[in-house]
Amino acid sequence: MKKWTRRTFIGAGTVAGGGFLLGVAGFTFAPNRYSLVSADAAEKGQLTTWITVTPDNIVTILIPHCEMGQGTPTALAMMAAEELEADWPLVRVQEAPALDAYANGYIVRAAGGNYVPAVLGRGVDYGAYKLAEWFGFQVTGGSTAVRSTGEYGMRVAGAAAKSMLLAAAANQWRVNVAECVAKGSRVTHAASGRSATFGELARAAATQPVPTSPALKSADRFTIRRTSPTRLDIPSKVDGSATYAIDFTTPGMLYAALEMAPVHGGKLVSVDATPAEAMPGVKKVVKLEEAVAVVADSFWRARRALAALKPEFSDAGHGDVSTASIFAAFDQALGAPPEVPKNAAKVVTADYRAPFLAHATMSPMVCTAKVEGDRAQVWTGVQDPLNARSVAAKAIGIPAENVQVTNFLLGGGFGRGLPFNFDYVDLGARVAKAMSPFPVKTIWTRENDIQHDYYRGAALSRHAGALDANGKPLAAHSNYTGGGNGEAVFMPYAIAAKNAKEKKAPHAIRLGQWRSVLNSQHGFFKESFIDEMAHAAGQDPFEFRRGLLGDQPRFKAALEKAAAMSNWGTPLPPGEGRGIAICESFGTIAAEVVHVAVSPEGRLKVLNIYAAVDCGDVVNMDSATAQVEGGITFALSAALLSEINISQGRVVEKNFRDYPMIHIADVPTITTAFLRSDAPLGGLGEPGVPPLAPALVNAIHAATGIRVRQLPIRNTSLKKA
Amino acid sequence: MAITMIVNGKEQSLDVEPDMPLLWALRETLGLTGTKFGCGISACGACTVHLNGRAVRSCTLPISAANGQHVTTIEGLAQDGALHTVQQAWVAHQVPQCGYCQSGVIMAVAGLLAQIPNPTDDEIDAGLTNICRCGTFARMRAAIHEAAESRPAKAKGTAS
Fold this sequence. Notes:
Structural class of chain A: alpha+beta
Strand order of the largest sheet of chain B: 2-1-5-3-4
Distance between the termini of chain B: 24 Å
Number of strands of chain B: 5
Strand order of the largest sheet of chain A: 12-13-10-19-16-17-18
Oligomer: heterodimer
Largest sheet of chain A: 7 strands, mixed
Number of helices of chain B: 5
Structural class of chain B: alpha+beta
């Protein structure tokens, strides 16, 4: 299993008006995590937590993660408030950039003297950006916020603050601290009948010694966690007041529309700017190395003028690349199926194919920037503001500390806003540099977004398995292209020989992380194949899996739960079927059952989906459920409909007409149950995704006998032969 | 060209080209940024507003078509400080995740309920074709039914 290491530093101080402020820097290091966590992360760390208690008895918690719909700020605040014994209605959440009020004049003392976050020139810099030199990334990804920031930051900070408030009260009342109790944002001493609010004690608490390893509550004493307080961001998302990067405005702002080289890596060869320059509202045609931008006084005018241009781009030598050529290379790299034992009674072989996918976040990419001399401001929506700042600074050619980045709510993330995917910040910054000193908002069209993504990689996986005469599996091997890692290819089943080997077949398509990353392909491959093994063995797919999970009690429990929820094994009408799949990702085990109906004409209807999830423990029950539902629905849309194709080196699909998404009509009831285990907290943003596609194709097989081995499913006829 | 519209109950005059989509006039000229740009081809519904009480996709609707008409955006859906029943149900069911599509979804649902006060699941399926990438559809359905039930028996159309 993955080994997590952690260290924590705590510092405390005062804020103007007699408030108490406490910060925790902790960091986590996951050796097998993909490249988001750099190899030297353990030395760099990541600032995780900041709590203030003000005289009005309000507890404010700074959240160093972005909100992209996953409910992280609420969950993190719950974890801090739980340990602090705060009264939940008196808890507020602030995002880092809103901390200007605290910018100057407080002192942070280091616990043990070995750590002073002396980075607090301005609150804004502290919160999001200036930490770069010390703390590396400030990323929201890898389903990590709750299990790293929450576990090692929020809880420790809450417990430390409580301990200091208790000490302050005991000191003030000259009583034994062990007799004081913190509850509901108040400290009481029952024997003397004395009581004070956290706010009243804040000033004194700030002068107390900072505990280095405060005791944390045991789970059986939780009163805030495991409940479902309403998410703090929701009211603003029903009345139009929530602000995303596309909503930002600043005086004098201009708008830019872009056309980039259609083949990634291509350059702008030539463009006659004249037709656009003559159009109303146009300020300038900006020629960039790999793109042309029209800057105008409205986005619509910019876009209209851009359409009048006929730029020529080079193709970087990739003009002959196609989906077919990429898969032909995959096929060649894989060669013969893996070898299986010679004494097998039965051999099963199968190829599975997964397409390129775009993220298609609801909000297209947006970056507003203003460059004045050697300073710049950037307003955007990213999953890592620190890295975005570096990208903008490099694009403009100024030092990173001269760039101030303001991050907004993300209109969807799914991996598109992760570090190394910041072409929209790069391009936006360069357009603004060309228009200096005017601020310019560069908005990507949906066509820009779908055609210039960092795609989920296409992959081909070639499997061979062997069964003995009793249907017991002897081997389940695979060779695959398109990337993989230990977590993604891991099969929990007790099969003596199970090797998964990557074969390299590089191509020119730009890749990135897509919700659940490599698990999104490998979940489909391995859980489809084990289903085929079960059928070859003549066994029920659920019972077959269960029989191989004797050594894996968490997997077994989740599998059994999902099966029970779905009434697995009870008879269904003709044309209906159930499929099951189970995957571990990001420390969470998710088992899903999909129930489908397929008409004789081959029309597929998903009737029910059941999910049993073991993420250790759950912080916010309702938003945890929402994350599972969301992951399942996201995966369902992709499994049914989504593929990005390449022709002449460029992406074929352009918008939601040819890269369609499911609608409400396609989404069945989703029933989610959480299993509580003593495992460390697992992630929840992603683990709902991987089991969905295999459970769905397994259900289609159960309903029709047709085995779908390539996604999306719409490419395979489900009509009875 | 001078365009006059009643936007959220207030008369607005704009000097814009007649073929400018209503979306951009609302967002950039009037500063009503709750209405979102998602696709520009009327495929996703993030830009849904009400034109004379009926849900329309504003990203392809030329503003000339709104001249002299009543336009309601998400900012104008609440009346007298009280959230619309759809908005209330959206909070009760904690529907939004990233939230970007939800202004358009809420306007589409409010428009649907103005036409069909108590829709069946099939009517919801046929009447709501907005895209949500976070996957909040299952909650939307529950919230729509709740909003429908909480409306007065003689529900009237949304304010326009």
